[in-house]
Amino acid sequence: MRSIPEIGTTFPIIGNAHQLKTKSGEFFNQIVELTTEYYTLPLFKIWIGTIPFVILFHHETVESILNNPIHMEKAYAYTFLHPWLGTGLLTSTGKKWRQRRKMLTPTFHFSILTDFMEVMNEQSEILVEKLQNKAGKEVFDCYPYVTLCALDIICETAMGKKIYAQSNYESEYVKCVYKMSDIVSRRQRLPWYWPDLLYYSIGDGKEHDKMLKVLHSFTQKVIKERAENISNSESDSETDLKKRRAFLDMLLKTTDEEGNSMSHQDIQEEVDTFMFEGHDTTAASMNWILHLVGSHPEVQRKVHQELDEVFGTSDRPVNTEDLKKMRYLECVIKEGLRLYPSVPFFGRTICQDTTIRGFKVLKGSNIIIVTYALHRDPRYFPEPEEFKPERFLPQNSIGRPAYAYVPFSAGLRNCIGQRFALMEEKVVLSSVFRRFTVEACQKHEELHPVGELILRPEKGIWIKLEMRTK
């Protein structure tokens, strides 16, 4: 049995932390560079504090973990999300996770997701109106526009609450969502902030709790209001509830096999999780795709051609039949997620001693799966840095290992909302490309991807728009 190769020099208490970059963008680039340097190895190990982190970035090693029901527990770093998200679907484990996943799965059935298309179309139309003011004018950063659109969509579909983020980007709730993500990410990579005593005395502890109060107060208020509306048939008719049904409404009515309903605390965990996972991820993906398509005129021509075939000259909203016909746009989205996966790495805890490709990995070790590097394996993605949507045409996907491409994770703990995300991206992106021609105004080397909880461009996505003539 071989020992796992270790990177650099380790010291007591801090491990390799002294060698790791502290800025998020630099830390992410350092990990990616290590996966390139040690590509011929099946895995390697770094120590952050007293915890060993085993780095995986080949499909063979990734599958051995994600496809194993024993290693279901999330990595230690996820505990820093507990104050915000509790132990909802993202962070829970064991019996609670299995029970919660079973209860929530029906709420993501395709027939229910189609009810949300009205919201997606409405918010996409608002986005298009905002972008029309930029068309034919100066270069601008589209990142905040697309992100606020995604936030409006998730707020209304998850909570049934309009927050008008696209019109009120100074919203306190909007600011706190972003600030909280940054605070958590920073703590995860700096082990001297892991103990609460140090975190609250010299770290971001006080700011963390300030953000937490705003976020929880908002969702608590919304849950209380929706619960009262559902129980009061006079204030909300059954027809109105069906028309604007939200995930929250379904959670308030959900019961397990024994007839037990979810408490308001249980529901808040899941609503906060939807808000965290369900807007920044899709927003990042759509922004990267706008850059990629705007950098490849031939791809954009094919996107326009497909959309013209589906919609003609009509400005009608997107429907479910349209979604099925957007085959090339789906390839574009998948290739965008290959190059710039919204979650650039994620982690698990090894729950019993195991062997990976002849290396012994001890119970308690943390596994970090580097999606960004996994998706650039030249064995399955020749010319891995090139943007080629045709890779995902059915005939070109034959023989590609399932675990070589995991933008939504894989195995039992795959992302429950991946169909929702793909639907949203098709609706929003098709709305934009039906109206505009996009020109990217940054070179590849100017993007500087920052890998925190979400993979973002350091300085936004700068584009120029022109109205399409039909």
Automatic annotation (TrEMBL):
Residues reported in the UniProt entry to bind heme: C415
Classification via SUPFAM superfamilies: Cytochrome P450
Pfam families, per the entry: p450
EC number of this enzyme: 1.14.14.14
Cofactors, names only: heme
Catalytic activity: androst-4-ene-3,17-dione + 3 reduced [NADPH--hemoprotein reductase] + 3 O2 = estrone + formate + 3 oxidized [NADPH--hemoprotein reductase] + 4 H2O + 4 H(+); testosterone + 3 reduced [NADPH--hemoprotein reductase] + 3 O2 = 17beta-estradiol + formate + 3 oxidized [NADPH--hemoprotein reductase] + 4 H2O + 4 H(+)
The keyword Kinase belongs to this UniProt entry's keyword annotation: no
GO molecular function: aromatase activity; heme binding; iron ion binding
UniProt keyword annotation of Heme present: yes
Keywords attached to this entry: Heme, Iron, Metal-binding, Monooxygenase, Oxidoreductase
Protein origin, superkingdom: Eukaryota
Class of enzymatic activity (EC top level): oxidoreductase
Similarity comment: Belongs to the cytochrome P450 family.
Biological role: Catalyzes the formation of aromatic C18 estrogens from C19 androgens.
This protein's name: aromatase
Organism: Knipowitschia caucasica
